[in-house]
Design brief:
Largest sheet: 8 strands, mixed
Helix content: 40-55%
CATH class of the largest domain: Mainly Alpha
Number of strands: 29
CATH superfamily of the largest domain: Rhodopsin 7-helix transmembrane proteins
Radius of gyration: 53 Å
Number of helices: 22
Strand content: 5-15%
CATH architecture of the largest domain: Up-down Bundle
Distance between the termini: 159 Å
Shape: rod-shaped
Structural class: alpha/beta
CATH topology of the largest domain: Rhopdopsin 7-helix transmembrane proteins
Oligomer: single chain
Length: about 850
Amino acid sequence: MMIFVVLILVMVPQLKCKSKCKISNPLPSFHKYYVSGELTIGGIISQAHILSNTFSFENCPSQDVFDDVVILSQNYQHILAMAFAVKEINENPEILPNITLGFHIYNSHFSASWTYLASMDLLSTRGRFIPNYKCDIQDKLAAVIGGPNSDVCLHMATMLCMYKIPQFTYGSAPVMNNKTQAVFFQRMFPNEIHQYEGIIQLLLHFKWTWIGVICHDDENAERFVQNVLPRFSQHGICFAFIERFLKLSFSAENPNRINEQFESYERVVKNTARVLVIYGETETLIMLRMLLRMSEIDESPQKEIGKVWVMTGQMDFTSIPFQRIWDIDFMHGSLCFVSQKKELVGLQTFIQMKNPILEKEDGFIKDFWEQVFSCLIPNSTVEKTEESCTGEEKLGTLPGSVFEMSTTAHSYSIYNAIYAVAHALHVMHTSKLNHRAMTDERRQELLNLQPWQLLKVLRSISFNNSAGEGLSFDQNGELVTGFDIINWVTFPNQSFLRVKVGRIGAKSLPGKVFTIWDDDIVWPNWFNQSQPISLCNEHCCLGYRKAKKEGMPYCCYDCLPCPAEKISNHTDMDECFQCPEDQYSNSDHDACIPKKISFLSYEEPLGRSLTIFSLSLSFITALVFWTFIKHQDTPIVKANNRDLTYILLISLLLCFLCTFLFIGQPQKVLCLFRQTAFGVIFSVAVSCVLAKTILVVLAFMSTKPGSKMKKWVGKQLAITIVVSCSFIQVTIGTLWLATSPPFPDFVMNATVEEIIFQCNEGSAAMFFCVLGFLGLLSIVSFTVAFLARKLPDSFNEAKFITFSMLVFCSVWLTFVPSYLSTKGKFMVAVEIFSIIASSAGLLFCIFSPKCYIILLKPELNNKGQLIRRKNKSI
């Protein structure tokens, strides 16, 4: 019993037209029948056909009429893969025992009319072209395999789906607008969505965001542009161009269209995009090679195009005979997606055994052999000559650009399609045989097996092929498999290698979906084996941000430096960003540097200098105090209230020492008391000066006859003035600490490179209240002293106090603007300097004249001198 499978594929007729023609033989030129030795019960006769482009004919069904057949030599392996699979199945007793599998092959000639013709022939009785009339009991059609172009499958589906015949596509799957037609398709080509996602992952992996797209000018390409390319844009990939080329045709084209195609090709070559995604099918490379050839003939100076081609899995390397001598270096370094495949054991041996002289049933081998070996096969009408084929030629000696010996992806898909049909038929056959002894009616039922019954089994079939790969289909009839990423490596002898450099696994299968081995990739020679860069412009370096170019795609941009205090630490950043508060931007604006914590420390020169000045003046103050203690009984010490002098010297000593509350790392206790301590101590000092000035005035007024001021002159008044003034300052300080006490604080943004660690005063108003009260005391003291500066007295301090308070007021008046205009440790340094300067002014202006007399002019330090000076004054 015999079962047939049909193959419809694509081959090309020679460019030689006839004026008239008629269909002389619509049957395929390559048909083979394998007949078993005996028939058994339950035997099924069926047929599997492949629609292809290998049809040999004398005449043609359209106006574009050609003479002799020209075979696409690379597609001849598709035919041999089918014959090899059928041969293996028929020789395997475990699959379809006592049933023979046969096949027919049809050529679609890139033509819808030829595909329709072949489809209708399948629905006719063998040898009689009467569609819808078929009475072959021993010639049952099981399935049809179509490809590699999607058009072949789409056109044959129009006829065959009405009869519910299972159909396989081994190339790209057509888009079925009719959902009913899609039900009868089994796809040996993986889901194209996975391929497009893989291309996106490949582009992103190599950071190719500026690409060109080449596709045919047909409906499939339009769907690709409208539905698929937006996904690329969603991942940040934009297009330098989208060029459409005419599909391959063997009718006379308008010369203007040819010129347009060449102009499009020139735009592709000269564009800055280094990566081209090519969407096409079998004939795409034929057309592209023609354009490449035209560019070589043209006098254009640009010969090296410097492009990386990324080709979809629907394409395969094909060429027509006159392209055989053309260079294939353009393919070197290209990346191609192909459906995953394994090498078929025994296929190369099967191919090597082919001999055109011995083969009688192969209707293609004669034309194929003559074309690839450039010889003539002798027959009864052709005598042997030097140009005759010997039959000893070996296909393995042909370069890969003419014929490949290794299994191609399309051949592997055809092989698996044949096995899928065989295993499905085997399941159906064995299920029937498992029943009890069958009657003649049952046997007739098996002979009347309908093709649609096979479809249900095909959807659930699962098996291992001879290469050891497990195969199964999903609920949509798609083969559960993925894609391999192939790197083309060409050689000067027109041969090439397909090197597997990655894979895209099916999402339904476990494991990593996208894998790439960068080190295994060979890049085009133009790039000198360095990874190509395909960008609209150079990357924006660190420290720069992208700025959109008006009128250009978003992949094209200018690079602008980051503004002050912002950085970009990655290439091609959309925006610069602010550093954290505790960091600042470096000069290149590409990194954040931790800020230094800044405070007035003893280790730095400024802190060290202020410390030395403070200690020195403290020591001087102590010496003065010791001098006054030592000479406490002398008139100059007793004059103007000795106790006030001691209190003033002690307060000045404390003023110098309180500067140490401001130097060093701020701490909670120090911050809490340093300003209040400063205010109270200075209030005591200034109140002492005020008291001494008032006492001078009162002492002079008490010397007048009948003056009642004498009772006010004494220690009690001085102590009252000092205590009262100090109490007011203590009260202000207490309110300050109670309401808004100072505390240690980090000021992040006061300066660019530093974090200021300082004492936050808590309340600026209270701080200036302390200063304001000190200012009030100093102004009063200055005023009183200024009025009393000319009073007659040998030891009148008023004029010295006047000068000292002038210095004191000058220091603190300049302190306020200086303090407000500085930050951080310099603000603290200004306050320390003001403390030291004002204290030193009081110390030197008041006590230096007295020390001069005590130490250097002791003869003036006596009571007689005091009386004599008074008399002179009177």
